[in-house]
Amino acid sequence: MAKHPDLMLSSQALQSAPLAMLMLDGSGRVTWANDELACILGVPIESLIGNGDDKLVQMCLKRLLSDDEIIALPSINNNPECWLKCWIQDMPEQSGKGQLRYFADVSEYIRTKDPVTGLLNERSLVQGLDPQVSRSRRYNNPLSVVAMYLEGLEDMDDRYGVSTRERVLVTVGQLLKDQMRWADLIAHTEEDEFIFVLPETRKDDASKLVAKVNEYLLKMDVVADNGDPIELIPHFGVAEWQKGDDVTLLLSRVSEALKAGHGAEVIQMN
Questions:
Q1: What confidence category does residue 7 fall into, taking pLDDT thresholds of 50, 70 and 90?
Q2: Domain carrying residue 68
Q3: Rounded to two decimals, what is the model's pTM?
Q4: 59 and 181 co-located in one domain
Q5: Helix extents (H) in the chain
């Protein structure tokens, strides 16, 4: 029997949809996938049906069929490593109680953002700082950079668990975003430093912002998941762009200020 025109149209629309998709039967086996998913994985659609025979494809499918909202996929057939956000729609009972899974490529967001706080990561901060430094070189515009470290974060995982630490980082990140202007850049690095890039800002004004942030941090009520109070001691380093600074040198002076107290202003407020 020929397929109903509406069904044929629906199938064609799903096949060419901009979101990657796959369909599962009631036993969790792949019965259908669209071109976008095959393109992301770098494999033919046929290799996905029935959950595949190739070990790398099977490993990818295992991740795609997990309960994770964000799924990291390795490089396959020279396709770059990527991250997909997953949505799940249960199929109606008359369709066999399967699932339709949708995947959006969020690789660019993941590559530019810190996964815990949602702030910029260090790589993206450097990319954003470079044109600001170039502008200061050309027009002699003021530009300040602040580095912040919270004493008390370093052993939080061991003492209170990962969830407490991540919750604290998210709270601090939101506080910083609330205090910054739209043109400012804020990053959280893998070393647990927070870095602010403040265009058109002299060091004196950056220090005033530091004082305000420090005040809010000290007033912040921080408790562990078990209810224990947590003390966070903020440390800040401030440096203003000066002639001869490139991105690396400016960030180095700020880092040295934070760690050793020379080369730029270092501030510790209690």
A1: very low
A2: 5-110
A3: 0.69
A4: no
A5: 5-15, 35-41, 55-64, 107-112, 122-139, 156-160, 162-179, 203-219, 247-260
